[in-house]
Write a structure and sequence with these properties.
Helix content is about 60%, strand content about 5%. It is mostly helical. It has two domains: about 10-260, Fic-like fold, CATH 1.10.3290.10; about 280-345, Winged helix-like DNA-binding domain superfamily/Winged helix DNA-binding domain (Arc Repressor Mutant, subunit A), CATH 1.10.10.10. The radius of gyration is 21 Å and the shape is globular.
Length: about 350
Amino acid sequence: MNDFFTQSAAWHEKIGQIYALLERVKISEEQSADVLHLRKTSRILSIGSTTAIEGNRLSLSQVRDVINGKPVLGPPKDIKEVQNAYTAYELIPQLDAYSVDDFLAAHRHITSELINEAGRFRTASVFVVNGKGDILHSGADFNDVPTLISELFAWGKESDAHPLIKSSAMHFMIEHIHPFRDGNGRIGRLWQTLVLTKWNALFEWMPVETIIYNNQAKYYEALQRSHNNAGKVDCAPFIDFMLDVLENTMYKYIDTATTTVAIENTELSANDIVKLGVKLGVKLSVNQIEVLKLILSNNYITIKEMAEKIKISETAIQNNLAKLKTAGIIVRIGSDKSGYWNVIE
C-alpha cells in the first residue's frame, strides 16, 4: 500500500508545537492534586464523547455512573455501548496497534451484544449517509475488506511516517474502508489513540474524542474532503484536522489538570466542573448550580422533580433554566414532554 496522502510542510511546525505541549502535559500531571482522578475523568470524557458522536443519549454524569457500576436510568442499548467502549479502552495497554487479530478483538468488545457480527468483518455492502439520507460514502467491497485492512496494518507497521501523521491516516483509512457493519467510527477513534499511545503513553489519557465531538461538522467535512470527485483518496485534509484536534486536546487536558487542583474546596464535584468546562466563567447562582447538578445526574429530569429536590417553585426552576439556555450552558433536545437536557461545553 502506497502512502495515501500528500505531505504538507505545515505539519512539521504543528508536530513541533505538539512536542512542546507534551512537556506541559507531563508537568500538569505532576502538579495535579490527583493524577489517577484526572486520568479517570479524561477516560470518562473519551467514552462519553465517542459514543455520543454515534447518537448515544446518556449524559456525561450517566456515563460516569455506568463506568463506576452504578444503576442508571437510560436506554439499555446506550448503557451497553458505554460499557463496551470502556472495556475496549481499558485494553489499550494490551493491544498491538498493527495486529489484525487485536483489531477484530477490540471491535468484538465494542459491539458485544449490539450486533450479530461483533468482531467479524462485514459480509454485505454499506453506505454512509447524512441526516437527509444522502449517500456520503460507500465502504469498500466487503470481499476486499480483509485484504485492505491487512495491507493498511502492514503499511502502519513499516511506514516511517511520524506517529501523529500515521495515526491520523490509519484513522481515516479505517473509516474509508468501513470494515464492519457497525462500530467503524468508535474503532477508528480508538485505534488512533492506540497508535499514539504506543508512541507516547500520555496519549492513552487524552480525551481526543471530546474535541472531535465538539467539532463534528468539521470532522465529517474533513473526511469528505479527503475524497476527490473521482473517488480517489488523499487524506491530507483529515490529517490537517486531526493535528489541530490533537493540539486542542492537549490544551484541554492541561486545563482539566489545572481545574483538578483548583477545585478541591468547591461544592461542585470534579466531574461537574469538567462538564461545565469553559462555561465556569459565567457567574452562576446557587440554584443554577443545583439545577445543573441535577441535569448532570439525570438529563431526563422534569421541572417538577427539580423543584421538589431544590425546594423552590416550578416557576423559579423555569426562570433558571431560561437563564442557563440564554447563557449557552444548556439546550433542550426534543419536545418538552419526551425530550432531555444537554449541558454544553
